[in-house]
Design a protein that fits this description.
binds flavin mononucleotide
Length: about 325
């Protein structure tokens, strides 16, 4: 990192209190003490991690994808290893929006951390209904709209693969809530900028990208797919260059702010995605390899700012031309 030196990872966490003011960020009008956010589906509601460190060390948490009704998810096996990453087909297992509001939100709300509600639906109306429910009480800071879900009325293609469908979902959520709306884009498209612009035109306040890349593995002994669902989403370091490219392209195509993600596992990766144009970023698969990864990245970023004389991390957003 700075001056060609990588910082040591042999440290004890949580480490002694350091001044990390250089990481303070305002994103979608919400205060983030640092730009590090736990990615949806990889951190639950943070409960398991609270035993390791205070969640307040993170800037934000994007909770598990939430649907109108509880979802049991896909049959197992639903995880497969891949070189430098993993495939998952969890199938949005979650307790539904009412259980989230009653059982998870009250605890999250008490913490000094930005709460991002990641929502999924089968129709634009469902997305709108979830957003409306979430807006009825305090606690949620941002709604993140996962448009990588099948559009049941249009043959099952993901909303995020058509600009018309992406527009319709964004509009439905926009009309249902006054909370900031951030639409999470799918990378499984030919032109991500077209979809990004459709979401901006429909009233999105921000965008997050990328979701997982569609993939598949086969067990050569059984000659059958490894995942019970046949296909799944690829995440982890393997997808990082795709994420950087898509953030870079999108940041040049829209005026609304971007939360970047996809394969980030070090502070250098975080710097790269921010230099490509992201204001904040999410860490997903890296948390499975190291539960402390988000904390290490935040600390290394603040150290990088100190070494490089950067007063606030926002100075580097989009500097790569
Ligand atoms: C096990 C698992 C579950 C996920 N669940 C969701 C989800 O519920 N909603 C969503 O929008 N993205 C979900 N994602 C995608 C991640 O939030 C993230 O966009 C993706 O994994 C890329 O980032 P990463 O490479 O840092 O993991 C999931 C990813 C994984 C690995």
């Amino acid at each position: 990192m700075g001056e060609g030196k990588t910082l040591s990872t042999e440290r004890v966490f949580p480490s002694p209190k350091k001044n990390m003011d250089c990481l303070h960020t305002k994103f979608l009008n919400v205060d983030f003490k640092n730009p590090v956010i736990a990615a949806s589906g990889t951190y639950g509601y943070g409960r398991e991690y609270e035993n390791l460190y205070p969640l307040e060390k993170l800037g934000g948490i994007s909770v598990k994808g939430t649907t109108l009704l509880p979802k049991p998810g896909n049959p197992v096996p639903r995880i497969a290893e891949t070189p430098s990453g993993m495939l998952n087909s969890i199938g949005l297992e979650n307790p539904g929006i009412d259980a989230f509001i009653n059982n998870e939100l009250p605890d999250l709300q008490k913490k000094d951390i930005a709460v991002i509600l990641n929502i999924s639906g089968n129709t634009p109306e469902q997305y709108g209904e979830i957003a409306a429910k979430a807006s009825l009480q305090p606690g949620v800071d941002i709604i993140e709209v996962n448009i990588s879900c099948p559009n049941v009325k249009q043959g099952g293609a993901a909303f995020g693969t058509s600009k018309e469908a992406a527009f319709a979902v964004t509009k439905a959520v926009r009309e249902a809530t006054n909370l900031p709306v951030m639409v999470k884009l799918s990378p499984n498209v030919t032109k991500i900028t077209e979809i990004a612009k459709a979401c901006e035109d429909a009233g999105a306040d921000g965008l997050s990208l990328i979701n997982t890349l569609l993939g598949m593995r086969i067990d050569v002994k059984t000659r059958r797919p490894i995942l019970a669902n046949v296909m799944g989403g690829l995440s982890g370091p393997a997808i990082f260059p795709v994420a950087v490219r898509m953030v870079y392209e999108t940041a040049r195509a829209v005026k609304i702010p971007i939360c970047g993600m996809g394969g980030i596992s070090t502070a250098e990766d975080a710097l790269e995605i921010m230099m490509a144009g992201a204001q904040t970023f999410q860490i997903g698969a890296a948390i499975f390899a190291d539960a402390y990864a988000p904390l290490k990245i935040a600390e290394d970023l603040s150290e990088w700012c100190r070494i490089n004389g950067v007063k606030n991390i926002s100075e580097i957003i989009g500097v790569c031309k």
